[in-house]
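Limitations
The structure tokens in this dataset are predictions for the assembled complex, not deposited experimental models. Users should treat interface geometry with appropriate caution, especially where small molecules or nucleic acid strands are included. An illustrative entry is reproduced here so readers can see what is and is not provided.
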Amino acid sequence: MTPEELSTAISACLRDAVAAGQISVDVPESVRVERPKSRDHGDWATNIALQLGKKASMNPRDFAQVLATRLADADGVAKVEIAGPGFLNITLEAGAAGELARSIVEAGAAYGTNEALVGHEINMEFVSANPTGPLHIGHTRWAALGDSIARVLKASGANVTSEYYINDAGNQMNIFALSVYNRLHGLPVPEGGYPGGYIKELADAVADAHPDIRNLTAEAALPIVRHAAYVAQMADIKETLNDFGVEFDVFFSEQELHAGGAVEDAVARLREQGHIDDTDGAVWLRTTDFGDDKDRVLIRANGEPTYFAADAAYYLSKKDRGFTEKIYLLGADHHGYVNRLKAIAAAAGDDPKVNIEVLIGQLISVNGARLSKRAGNIIELRDLVNWLGADALRYSLGRYPADSPMTIDPELLKKNTNDNPVFYVQYAHARSRAASRNAVEKGVERTDFDATLLTHETENDLLAALGQFPSVVAQAATHREPHRVARHLELLAGAYHSWYAACRVTPVGDGTVEPIHRTRLWLNDATTQVLANGLDLLGVSAPEKM
RNA sequence: GCCCUCGUAGCUCAGGGGAUAGAGCGUCCGCCUCCGGAGCGGAAGGUCGAAGGUUCGAAUCCUUUCGAGGGCACCA
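Predicted assembly:
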């Protein structure tokens, strides 16, 4: 019996009790069951009686008694006890939990997928770094997190498109082009330009593609430089993301938005909706109608659209493409945009509480210093991957929630990789594979399976951790918090190691192979599967050997 | 000035109304003649920034306050 099945059984008991007139209360769709901290409290516990007791106008213990009596008769439930103010402590029948090991092995890579978000059409936008330089440490967290969020959303049944918005329009691209142009001619970095060493590499790439570039006038050369440098830079960004295991379905160009007239269309559509003001020669979106603290300019008095106008057009594009939920993953330095982005959604006729979701994450600091690509002292994502390894980096970033401020000490990570829990989890996977290979070699095979043999307390704990996995994935998806998966994998790895120390899959020495060994091989392989499935959600490899 | 996020063990951080607040690292004590010791078992270490409030019950929710980071453009 899995925790989900137990939860379902409890809901059924509640409904039956209502039908029988024993209690009068609205039965929630799902009941949360928790693994109690103390083993004395049984296999699973729920505080549902405490939560519903008051609503049912009953003493929580009396409420618990009604529920306990019914639940004790459910299949797979051995014992139900009422504790404290009205906790229900549930003990399962021997073997009721063990069946899970076989079903996980049979489900394979599909174990953990769930239907929590079936029917959701989600656009997941993240990274969206300007194509004016390499991805750096500031993008690293969003790349890892956004990709993992997309993965847990998909695993929970949502239809997800991962998207990268390329800010390839606007003045910063001109400055970028001028920076490369100056470099080609050995001129100093322009005012406010990009000084990084990568500018030289881009200049070389431009010169390779256009050998005569230095002979052209600035007027003729700049558009060519701009485009060639942009192409080279985007190729570099895509390669870096690929090496980091981050996949995008769509790279969306802001430039094409402008070129295709989408920005003008967006302004016209918002005007039709009645949210446009023409003041001081500029065109304004009245975002204050929707909770923003001031109105925002869409078209400047000089006729140029603002960045915000492109944002509006981009939002409408997402809406037109059928996405009901548009998720933006932004750094804390962008939190000022949240209200106006939501205002766009509202002005477009969407519900800002449902159709748009802006996740704001805290920035990473490195040794207390915040690095800037404009300052030229960047730490590149590519270098971090080469330095620490994609697995360690993905995992260490993926195991913290987005709004948790993080301090990474590269020196510490570099010199002592054992600090990183990724090794604990990967090691558990590699160890379980070794145990399995060894068992097969000694003649232990997954032929028969007898769940009632899995009685050791470490087996109880291990099965519980395995059983919770699908609901952990579902919660990670609904909360957009993949770190829950990472934390659960650490719990699972710990349960596995404890079990491994106490229970043998392979008989000692020349001992005969018993049903218990074969049954344990199922449990071992089920653990392998869940570790691999969970690591995949985090974009981390599951090694056969380490 | 206004707004957002965050203050939990020596360090990095989980937990976000329920039972004795957790993990990793670090420190200390045990455990390889048998499936991977990158492991296991145990110990020490906490007024959950502070003060009020709501509740049967608060690290968790509310208010105030202190501290850290970030944001408040006809920039992108």
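Some entries come with short summary sentences. For this one: Residues 133 and 233 of chain A are 7 Å apart (CA to CA).
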